[in-house]
């Protein structure tokens, strides 16, 4: 079989297989329609911030709420500027890859930032 199937959208497993009209992941048991995933991929190219502005690579954003950071005693405070963001398909709904001053590299959700 020369056709390659897309990885699982839930756990990114490469061992997906077809079961009738659906694609199935044997690792997390997620089932999805390949047609729906193609439509979602084309719609998800536009990432928007908390107020609806379209984000792009290299933008500067401001954090709009305090964010707890695992493994750190301090939190990222409201108003923290994050420069030179990169849009990615991250873990869960974390779609911004960046470096936060004082915390280092991390991924953020677009719903907790506002474009400057």
TrEMBL record:
For this UniProt entry, which residues form the secretion signal?
A: none
Please give the SUPFAM superfamilies that the UniProt record associates with this protein. Prokaryotic SH3-related domain, Zinc beta-ribbon
Q: Which Gene3D superfamilies match?
A: 2.20.25.10, SH3 Domains
Its domain of life?
A: Bacteria
Q: Where is the Protein YjdM N-terminal domain?
A: 4-33
Read off the Pfam families from this record. YjdM (PF03831), Zn_Ribbon_YjdM (PF08274)
Start and end residues of each Protein YjdM C-terminal domain: 47-116
- Family membership noted in the UniProt record: Belongs to the YjdM family.
What is the protein's given name? Protein PhnA
- Per the UniProt entry, what species is this protein from, by scientific name? Arthrobacter bambusae
């Amino acid at each position: 079989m020369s056709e390659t199937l897309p990885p699982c959208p839930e756990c990114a497993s490469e061992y997906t297989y077809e079961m009738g009209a659906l694609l199935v992941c044997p690792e997390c048991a997620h089932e999805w329609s390949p047609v729906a995933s193609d439509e979602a991929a084309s719609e998800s190219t536009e990432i928007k911030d908390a107020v609806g502005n379209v984000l792009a690579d290299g933008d500067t954003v401001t954090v709009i709420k305090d964010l707890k950071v695992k493994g750190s005693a301090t939190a990222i405070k409201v108003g923290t500027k994050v420069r030179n963001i990169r849009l990615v398909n991250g873990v869960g709904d974390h779609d911004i890859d960046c470096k936060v001053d004082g915390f280092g590299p991390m991924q953020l959700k677009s719903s907790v930032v506002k474009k400057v």
